[in-house]
């Protein structure tokens, strides 16, 4: 795939949810999940993860991020086995932007980020992070007064905390108007050009084709197509 060195490699990765086994709900059975996923993402590249709702996109991103522990297969971050790295070290390589973050209240983006920076003990300042996502002029705007595009940028700033090698973005274009979508695409391309590897999930193939370097298509938890757009 396009880009620099491989920073994320998945080999035959499987994860399945444990769900109640009715009529004995105290017992669990294997439910939906992802099945034998193979994937490689390089520094400086953008991978579009495509699939309908329920295809397993969020599950895959959460498994890569370590929110789900995969059942079988291997996940390697910057050439090292994720399990051998340990939770804390692995998390320093990954930034996750969830699909929905409820930014609300009278606090400002600067104040909200400062709380997160302090909690995590990072050296970056809120001003530096907001500069990265083009929000320096809006850093003192009350959260309640921000547009959806600004809320998404603030979520991205949180994902950039710690300068991760890999960004995982779950449906980041949802709720954005065409102008905000175009601005967000430019922002992601600038981040990729700086060397960050990015995975962006979406259910909109036409949208992804505008800016990603490669595509992976998920259906019912399985990777049914994967390749470069070039």
Please sum up the structure shown:
With 230 residues, the chain is of the alpha/beta class.
Structural overview:
There is one protein chain. With 230 residues, the protein is an alpha/beta fold. The longest helix has 16 residues, at 178-193. It has one domain (6-228): P-loop containing nucleotide triphosphate hydrolases (Rossmann fold), CATH 3.40.50. 30% of the residues lie in helices and 33% in strands. The chain is globular. It contains eight helices and ten strands. Strands 6-7-8-3-9-10 form a six-stranded mixed beta sheet, sandwiched between helices. Strands 2-1-4-5 form a four-stranded antiparallel beta sheet. The termini are close together.
Which features would summarize this protein structure in a list?
230 residues; 30% helix; single chain; alpha/beta; 10 strands; 6-stranded mixed sheet; 4-stranded antiparallel sheet; Rossmann fold; 8 helices
Order of helix and strand elements from N to C terminus: EEEHEEHHEHHHEHEHEE
* Major sheet attributes: 6 strands, mixed
Total separate domains: 1
**Rg over C-alpha atoms, rounded to the nearest angstrom:** 18 Å
Shape: globular
Number of DSSP helices?
Answer: 8
Strand content: 25-35%
Q: Provide the low-confidence segments as ranges.
A: none
Overall residue-averaged pLDDT value: 93
CA(first)-CA(last) distance: 9 Å
Under the CATH scheme, the architecture is: 3-Layer(aba) Sandwich
Strand order of the largest sheet: 6-7-8-3-9-10
**Would you report the number of β strands?**
10
Structural class: alpha/beta
